[in-house]
Amino acid sequence: MKKVNLKIAILALTIAALGTGCSKFLDVNDNPNQPTEADVRLLLPSAQAATSHVLSNQYGIQAGIWGQYWTQSPFSSQYKSTDRYLTSASSMDRPWSILWSGGLQDYQSVITNAGQYTQQAAIAYILKAYTFQMLTDAFGDIPLSEALKGGDSLNVGYDSQAAVYDSIFVWIDKGLGMIEPTNPYKPTSEDLIFGGDMEQWTRFGNTLKLRAYLRVFKAATSKAQAGIQALQGKPFLEKDARINYTTNGGNENPMFSEILGLGRTQNLVASSTAIDAFTANLDPRRSAFYTVVTNTYNGVDIDTIVGIPQGTYDDIPDFSISFPSAATGGLGADNNSASAPVRFMSASESYFLQAEAVVRGWLTGNAQDLFVKGIEASFAAYGLSAEAANYIATAPAAQWPAGTEAQVKAIITQKYFAMTGNQTFEGWTEWRRTGYPDFFVPSAVGELAGKFPQRFPYPNSEATTNAKSPDMVDLDVPVWWAE
């Protein structure tokens, strides 16, 4: 698949240059057949930016609606088909191209041409695994054994999701095995996520493995159990793995850039599915994730956070509706949305993953303590640490129950809350894996006979150009690990 999407590469270069100056990134020698420092150091941020772009923009918006964090505004129209569960195959063309021709091609080039820059290659292996997981979790079977081989052929075969996951674990292990925190050639600011802190990449790789093994625990229980047990004593993330964006033109949060491209039209509004659950727990994070609006009740103006039921965009309400906040990147009228970070994995997710592994008996530790740490990390990420203790003590959803399944439900429900507006693809994916939270409602205009979408449609570009692409799969058919 040929490399495209120059805009993403330019974005990465601009962000990287902010910290190091352009001269280091443009210092290329004259030998066209030898990889250079500039080659690898430019490709790494380009690839990271490509993964981040799709995670926040196309996948983030789509999953934010199907994960019932947001719904289509009654005053606009951009995502009506998404709310109806009628996402067109052509809408997947651009993110597919960005990930394959941009991100994955660049990660592979870093690995192939690393030379002495083995730490960049280590990061590329881990993020190659991360990006393949994004793709397979979105679509199911995807290209693998015939992908990223070079050449101009568009006819690339697809492999099973089980085979993709086997490769994901191999790539993570390769990346982890290459990490040398004291390597003098390790990346600096061209690593947009950790700035070249290789100890954090070790934690990221371990946490990604934990996520991936838990993902397949139903379909491959013995493999998941053995893989997680092998992680005992390994360090996991205790800080967010994220890319920070700015308000400078071209460097905006990718979801906000989509909104800018639509003339700042506020298509996304709060879904009452998420809002009602937050409200039932008097969760102070509501005002971090959504805008506060004023509505009149019994003649009194009251500041509230209000959503509408999923798919009710044909009904014009007689009250004000909340929007995604600037902190999520989803508020078109607020330029602060531009600087919302994109989280690849968060500290709260890391603690919740560990808690679930302990509950299932595959790691040792105190699951309740890890559950509490996950909540506290979510509050801290939005400057609400002072309010966490009261929430943990009083909110029904924050109480630690008895019994394995009840504990898993509590963990995943809190993970769903923590991922509001910032890890929507993962929140929707975890719902597909576990069925939690259990308060989703079918869209009022959904066309899956009361069922929910379980996957993205394969891109139209594959059907029209790749002779080996599979037939379309109905959107309500679960992927392999959720069957």
The separation of the N and C termini measures: 31 Å
Radius of gyration from CA coordinates: 22 Å
> Per CATH, what is the topology?
Serine Threonine Protein Phosphatase 5, Tetratricopeptide repeat
Mean pLDDT: 92
Strand content: 5-15%
Counting H and I runs of at least 4 residues, what is the number of helices?
19
- Under the CATH scheme, the architecture is Alpha Horseshoe
CATH C-level class: Mainly Alpha
Low-pLDDT ranges: 1-36
Order of helices and strands: HHHHEHHHEEHHHEHEHHEEEHHHHHH
- Kindly state the number of beta strands: 8
Q: What topology, given as strand order, has the largest sheet?
A: 1-5
Explain this structure to me?
The protein is mainly alpha-helical and 483 residues long. The chain has one domain (6-251, 340-482): Alpha Horseshoe (Serine Threonine Protein Phosphatase 5, Tetratricopeptide repeat). Helices cover 47% and strands 6% of the residues. It has 19 helices and eight strands. The chain has helices at 6-20, 22-25, 37-56, 58-66, 80-83, 93-112, 118-139, 161-178, 198-215, 221-229, 254-261, 272-280, 286-289, 347-359, 367-381, 388-394, 404-418, 424-434, 460-465, and strands at residues 70-72, 142-143, 158-159, 241-243, 268-270, 293-297, 300-304, 342-345. The strands form four sheets. A two-stranded antiparallel sheet has the order 1-5. Strands 2-3 form a two-stranded antiparallel ribbon. Helix 9 packs antiparallel against helix 10 (221-229). Residues 1-36 have low confidence and may be disordered.
